[in-house]
Amino acid sequence: MSEIIKVGQVGFGMSGQLFHAPFIEANKNFNLKKVVERHNRNSENYYPYVEIVKSFDELLLDEEIQLIVITTPNIYHYEQTKKALLAEKHVVIEKPFTPTAKEAQELIDLSLKQKRHIFVFQNRRWDGDFMTIQKLLQTDLLGDLIEYEAHFDRYSPKLNTKPWKEADDPAGGNLYDLGTHLIDQAVCLFGLPDSVWADIRTQRDGSKVDDAFEVILNYPELKVTLKAGMLVREEGPRYILNGTKGSFVKYGIDPQENDLDKGFSPDNEGWGEDFPEKYGFLNTAIDGLIFQGNIKTIAGSYQKFYKNVYDVLMKNTEAAIKPEEARDVIRIIELAFESHRLGKVLQFDERIN
């Protein structure tokens, strides 16, 4: 493999335009060579040197391309990842990995057979607030954690204008969309749960998919609550952590998505830095002294995802996000839907049907 990794990107919608192409462009170890756009030529407005092709199959025929980045609707993830692996390409795949854990395992097995890597784009591992929580939990400032609550709330009463976003398809709806992030973060922090309970609701007029959910992951000494809704007009905490020694509360969402939407580059000075008024609040005791104050948020850094991709492919380092972890997230989502249907707590079962 050449030192500069040639990339083919499939799709140039919001995900491809905001979350992938800017970071591929900013990393000099990658060369975005081709983009698949079947109906438009939007990518040439940003990257005029990139060749636009009309089909996925045409992209796969390019022997120079070593890495395929898939940013298409969720229902195509399994099929396109499989074809890319069979074409002996490494693959970056947008979350959610696949509609089912069974499909995820099939792709993992195929990647091992083909000796190619799968990287699932769980970019919110590099949200500044989440990285701050990771560092906080490495200290004893909260004591033994007993409750962890994370929200991904929005106020969006109107249906999305993109039909596939609102279609009642496999891997559609808010739990597969935003819930994937919350579950991935929880599993990253605490590992696999003992059991899963969920309440999943459709709330917006005309909606055919789940709009809101509450998922509870149970651990021996810890309760993890994950919530998201599309009809939350008043901002609440993003994270609430309670331990035997203290509590931590964080408002506001990582600024990177908003900055990308404004056209800022990850090369900009101050990238990923949080607003001081949004720093998390810590209330704890240190050596018998009460401390109440703000904790500066670590700067977010989505660019670390593609740095890790390069390091895995060229330096044989460990993947930051293993496909098996992304598979387990899908398994938890499947159990959440089953829990809601049955109205009861379900034990986490690693077996994949």
Task: Describe the model.
- Helices cover 31% and strands 24% of the residues.
- It is of the alpha/beta class and 353 residues long.
- It is globular, with a radius of gyration of 20 Å.
- The mean pLDDT is 95.
Q: Percent range for helical residues?
A: 25-40%
CATH A-level architecture of the largest domain = 2-Layer Sandwich
How many beta-strand runs?
15
Largest sheet descriptor: 9 strands, mixed
When the domains are counted, the total is: 2
Q: What does this entry show, briefly?
A:
The chain is α/β, with parallel strands linked by helices and 353 residues long.
Chain-wise SSE layout:
Elements: E1 5-10, H1 14-26, E2 30-36, E3 51-53, H2 56-60, E4 67-70, H3 77-86, E5 90-94, H4 101-114, E6 118-121, H5 128-137, E7 145-151, H6 163-166, H7 174-177, H8 179-190, E8 195-201, E9 212-219, E10 222-228, E11 239-243, E12 246-250, H9 256-261, E13 280-286, E14 289-295, H10 303-315, H11 323-342, E15 346-347
Parallel strand pairs: 1-2, 1-4, 2-3, 4-5, 5-6, 7-10
Antiparallel strand pairs: 7-11, 8-9, 8-15, 9-10, 11-12, 12-13, 13-14
What keyword list fits this structure?
353 residues, alpha/beta, Rossmann fold, Dihydrodipicolinate Reductase, domain 2, 2 domains, 9-stranded mixed sheet, 6-stranded parallel sheet, 11 helices
